[in-house]
Amino acid sequence: MYHHRPDQPCRPVLPVLRARTRYARPVAATMTGEPGSRQTRPGLIRSLLDRFGHLVHELSKFATVGGVAFLVDFALFNFMTAVQDVEQVTAKTISTVVAATFAFLGNRFWTWRHRRGGNPAREYALFFFFNAVGLGITVAVLAISRYGLGQVWPEVFQTPLADNIASYLVGTGLATLFRFWSYRRFVFVPAGTPAIPEAKHDRHRA
């Protein structure tokens, strides 16, 4: 047992307690699940799933509708070019418009039916506007392949195989990414603006 002698000054114990507390803090954080510990990893994964799970669900539905529309576009394009002898760019424009009509109905009444609260005429107009931009992307890729690169290597790029690759692999891939972003961002949006009621509520509280 330690006895204090009057001729010796007392040693401060506060720095010792602070040092012990400083070194013991990481252990406590690990046990309580504070930020930086391993206990927060499952919670982080769960929060990411809660935040982006609905987006994955919408993307799967959008891909299903797009897959069926792709088959309609593919069959109609090849029918018009192979059987009806329609020019390739014209046939692509017609087949894309028909497929886009099917895609609009599928996306409005299935993919984003939970967000269907706006004006149908507005949705219809914006849908076909952004779909026309996507069509322009697809047709531009086809035109570059057939009439641009085809002038240099006609035996490679002016063939049915090259037309389908340019239309459905490159062009449709780029156009699909643009359409999903634009449809979700501008076309199928929830009705109302939640920020306005919150602002009014904050003003009343103030």
TrEMBL record:
Membrane topology label: Multi-pass membrane protein
Main location: membrane
Domain GtrA/DPMS transmembrane residue range list: 61-188
Record localization: Membrane
Entries under PANTHER family matching the protein: PROPHAGE BACTOPRENOL-LINKED GLUCOSE TRANSLOCASE HOMOLOG
Family: Belongs to the GtrA family.
Protein name per Swiss-Prot or TrEMBL: Membrane protein
